[in-house]
Specification:
The protein has 203 residues and is an alpha+beta fold. It contains 2 helices and 12 strands.
């Protein structure tokens, strides 16, 4: 759709140039004003691999290396745009919000994929319950968001991210140190996953 819009705009510009040239070379010709409208658009795309993985150390629950992901936002809006950064994980209750705040720090909860945790386990992790009460859920801090202004909205469990006209790269960094109250010996082995998304709609 964006390619079509650009093609139409280029054609219109060429036609305007031709009309102007005609009007100047032949005084008997009438000139015609051509105009077009470019709709506002915002495009968001991940520019890191869609699946990012890291290994967890068995004894501590910490990652061997931090995680990060980057989104590229392109917009022609003349006004600052508000986007929404959120995380989700799968529990036995479905696809649930996995971003939360404890003690002024924002975390992302990761859920086990092979042994799906309960909704209650995710809730216990978010409220800082004891480790054994959140089996199958571990959480890691968002250490920084760079490239755009942002604000965590506690009532929504997500960030608002503010971008200006043009191209903006938004990078989300996730720290390697596990939230201690989320890791215990009863966390089953296997892959743990959270899905991070940046959207125009507040969903």
């Amino acid at each position: 759709m964006n390619i079509l819009k650009r093609t139409l705009v280029m054609l219109s510009i060429l036609m305007l140039s031709a009309v102007k040239c005609f009007a100047e070379t032949d005084a008997g010709m009438m000139s015609t004003q051509l105009s077009f409208n470019i709709e506002s658009f915002t495009r968001i795309a991940p520019i890191t691999s869609p699946i990012l993985t890291a290994n967890i150390t068995d004894r501590t629950g910490n990652l061997y290396a931090p995680l990060f992901t980057r989104f590229r936002v392109i917009t022609n809006s003349s006004k600052k745009q508000t986007l929404y950064l959120q995380a989700n994980a799968v529990t036995d209750g479905g696809y649930e919000n996995a971003m939360f705040q404890q003690g002024g720090q924002v975390y992302i909860a990761f859920a086990n994929l092979s042994k799906i945790p309960s909704t209650q386990a995710l809730s216990n992790c978010k409220i800082g319950g004891i480790p054994k009460d959140s089996p199958g859920v571990v959480a890691y801090p968002i250490t920084s968001i760079t490239g755009a202004d942002h604000k965590y909205i506690t009532s929504k469990g997500k960030y608002e991210v503010y971008v200006d006209n043009g191209t903006t790269d938004v990078t989300v960094n996730v720290g390697a140190n596990v939230l201690p109250s989320s890791f215990a010996a009863n966390d089953p082995r296997g892959f743990y996953q959270a899905v991070l998304s940046l959207t125009e709609a507040d969903i």
